[in-house]
Amino acid sequence: MGKRYLFTPGPTPVPPEVLAAVGAPVLHHRSPDFLPVYERVLARLRDVCRTENDVLLFGSSGTGAFESAVANLVSPGEPHLVVSAGAFGERWEAMLAAFGADVDVLRYAWGETPDADDLRARLRERDAKAVWLVQSETSTGVVADVRALAAAAKEAGALVVVDAVSSLGAIPCETDAWGLDVVVAGSQKALMCPPGLGLAAVSPAALAATGSAPRFYFDWERTRKGQATLDAPVTLPVSLVCGLDVALGLIAEEGLDAVFDRHIRLGRAARAGAKALGLELFSPDDDRSAVVTAVRTPDGIDATELVVGLRDRFDITIANGHGPLKGKVFRLGHIGWFDVFDVTTQLAAVEIVLAELGAGIERGVAVSAALEAYEHSTTTA
Ligand code: PLP
């Protein structure tokens, strides 16, 4: 039949109306029919980021938006502090080192949750121009308390930079209320678009604190100036911007708080289903972890066999463990254009393949546990 299911925490499935917009005839990036789309996208991105700051848009993946932050904020030799508890904290660290920063790392084991008091203590020992955080560490499923971490960084007078690549549009990221100077994200996760757009919400303080590292394509000031008159400094990926316009319209129509509520309930469903199978969660069993659910495979079963089994048997793509967790955990994605049946489909297929691989799991209960957990609207969003 050729029906394929994409259940990874990025890229994620794209709604048909977004695909239709991406597939429409290409517009010129300075033409009168594109400019209102561009303007609306920039305004809607500010809504999703909950900010009055400029949100700078780049033709790049999320890592390009990372690089914009590093290239604009860093001067060689300057002290910076990364809070790292997984693959994407390590990416900040590697990129800052590549740009010549003097990098300190508040390091946690993969799967641990960063703590604001640890950050406070570290900043008492050593200054940092900026603290570099990951909101949703997609490699582990842990969502950090960015509000508390940002407050600790602010007390020490540091700028706060947040990787919200997998969390923006799935869980609250209150850029202005939490004092986040830079928030970076990409189009291919909870924003329900194909990969190819990176964005950075940048505060006036961050714009005023630019460093001396070389940069051109990702220069914030050049991009900000261009955006101010809708005169992009480069040829934008217009088709993706048209798709993002439709996707952000869908988010606005559902309502951002309702979207957050749905993600909390999807996370609950995934965790309830995995536990009903008798599996052990790797990511925390709490509502904050509403982006991706990481689950340990039963003893003696390699997650790679499970992931390959789902792909070969059912054309279902889920994520293996990342880096050192490869083979040990599998990850159920539930951000963006997901409903509860996308979660139950994953669980039902995992159940079948694990049973075939000889796992001693409890059969026939995961789907109903997930549906039951999804049922009730939250009040915490
Ligand atoms: N940060 C997080 C938390 C991610 O999940 C990802 C992608 O998986 C990235 C950064 C990197 O983004 P990209 O692959 O779009 O460059």
Structure description:
With 381 residues, this protein is an alpha/beta fold. Helix content is 41%, strand content 15%. The protein has helices at residues 16-22, 35-49, 62-73, 87-98, 116-125, 146-155, 204-208, 220-228, 238-254, 256-276, 303-314, 340-356, 366-374, and strands at residues 5-6, 54-59, 79-84, 102-107, 130-134, 136-137, 142-143, 159-163, 182-186, 197-202, 292-296, 316-317, 319-320, 329-333. Helix 10 runs antiparallel to helix 13, helix 11 crosses helix 12 (340-356) and helix 12 (340-356) runs antiparallel to helix 13 (366-374). The model has no long low-confidence stretch (mean pLDDT 97). Residues 10, 61-63, 88, 134, 136, 138, 163, 165-166, 186 line the site of pyridoxal-5'-phosphate (PLP).
Q: What is the β-strand count?
A: 14
Form type:
globular
Q: What is the number of helices?
A: 13
Helix/strand-derived class?
alpha/beta
**Element order, helices and strands?**
EHHEHEHEHEEEHEEEHHHHEHEEEHH
Strand order of the largest sheet: 2-10-9-8-5-3-4
Summed over residues and divided by their number, the pLDDT gives a mean of 97
